[in-house]
Amino acid sequence: MSETVAAGGPPEQEAFLQLRDVAKNLGGNPVLAGVSLDVFEGDLLGLLGPSGSGKTTLLNIIGGFTDLDAGSVRIAGQDLTALPPHRRDIGITFQKYALFPHLTVFDNIGFGLRQRKVAAPELRQRVGEMLAVLGLTGLAGRYPRSLSGGEQQRVALARALAVRPRLMLLDEPLANLDAALRQRVRFEIREILRSTGVTSIFVTHDQDEAFALCDRVAVLRGGRIQQIGTPAELIYQPANAFVARFIGSPNVFEASVQHYDAQTQSIRFVRDRFTGAACVRAPLTPGTRVEVFVRPDEVVIARADDVQPAKFRVKDWVHLVSGREAWIEGPITLRARLPSEATHLERGAAVIPSWRPERAHAFAIEPAPPAAATT
Length: 375
Ligand SMILES: Nc1ncnc2c1ncn2[C@@H]1O[C@H](COP(=O)(O)OP(=O)(O)OP(=O)(O)O)[C@@H](O)[C@H]1O
Ligand SMILES: [Mg+2]
Prior knowledge:
Low-confidence stretches: 1-9
Bound molecules: adenosine-5'-triphosphate, magnesium ion
Distance between the termini: 43 Å
Order of helices and strands: EEEHEEEHHHEHEHEEHHEEEEEEEEEE
Helix content: 10-25%
Radius of gyration: 24 Å
CATH architecture of the largest domain: 3-Layer(aba) Sandwich
Oligomer: single chain
C-alpha cells in the first residue's frame, strides 16, 4: 500500500507526478513554456491562473489528450509520453462536463468500470457507493439533460472517481454551481479526495476555492508557473508583482525607494508626501520606482493627530459581509478593512494609515518579461 505524503513532501521524496520543462505551441503561439511541477502522492495541488493562462492545456497534456512539443510527464517514475489516455489510469473531469447524453446517471458513472470489464455485481456496488458519496442516489435512472448543472458536475466527478484512478485532474469542477452549493460541494470534494487518498490537481480561477481546498497552489500566467506554495506563502511571500497583484485584491500604488534596509530586507518608500515601509525580495537602490502591494485587511487606520495637518481623509465606506471597507484619500487612495463595530471613522475624518512592513510587498517596476501567451 502506498503511503500518503504530506503536502509539499520532503524534497528528497520522489514526486508521484513530475512535469519537466513541458512546452506546447497552439495556433503558432506558445501556450505553455517550460512548465516544471512536482505533485507528491496524496497531495491536492491547486492550479490557479487567469483565463487563457494554459490550465486546461496542461491538464490535457497530463491526461494524454494533447501531445507536448517538449519536456516530459512521469507518474511514479514512468514516462507517460507514449501512453494513450485510456492506459494512463487518470480520472479527469472536463471543464465542460461532457456526460454521455444517451446514458443514464448510473451508466455514466459505470462507464469506465464497464470498459475495464468489471463484473456486474462489483460494478453495481461501486456505482452505488459513488451515488451515495455524491448525493446522487435518487437520480440513478435519470438522463443528463434532465439534471441541473450542479448535478451534472457531480455525476462527472463520480464517473471519474469510480475507476479509482491513481491521479485525478479536475478542471473547474464547481464552475456551474451557485455560490451556496459551491461552498458545500467544495468541502465534499475535499473530503472525497482526502478519504480516497488520490493524488489530484484541481484547476480553478477562484483563489478562495484554491485556498480552501488545496495544500499547495501553483500560479500560472501566460503558460509559465509564477510560484508554487502553500496559501500562506502565496499571500505573505509573493514571488513577484503578478502574484502579489493576483492574490487577495490588494491596494496597488507606485512609489520611489528612499532607503533599503538589508537587515530587515525592507524599504522605506515615498509617494508625494506619504512615506511607508514594505518588504522586498532583492536589494533596491534609492530612487528605484516600485509598485507597492498591501491588502485592505493589513491597513490599520488611526485618527489623525489634530496638531499635524492630515494627509488622508475617509472618503467613503461600504459594507461587506466580513466587515466594512473604508476608502481613504490622500497622496494615494487606499482601501482598508475595518471591523464592523468600528463606527468612529465618519466620512471626512482625518486619518493616518499604516501597516506592518512585512505585510506590504514592493517590486521594482521593470519592463514586463516576455509572456508565453497573451494574458
Ligand atoms: N486548439 C487551439 N488552437 C489555438 N490556440 C489554442 C487552442 N487551444 C487553446 N488555445 C489557446 O491557448 C491558451 C490557453 O488555453 P487554455 O484553455 O489552456 O486556458 P485556461 O487557462 O484553461 O483558460 P480558462 O480559465 O478560460 O479555461 C489560450 O490563449 C487559448 O486561446
Ligand atoms: Mg480552462
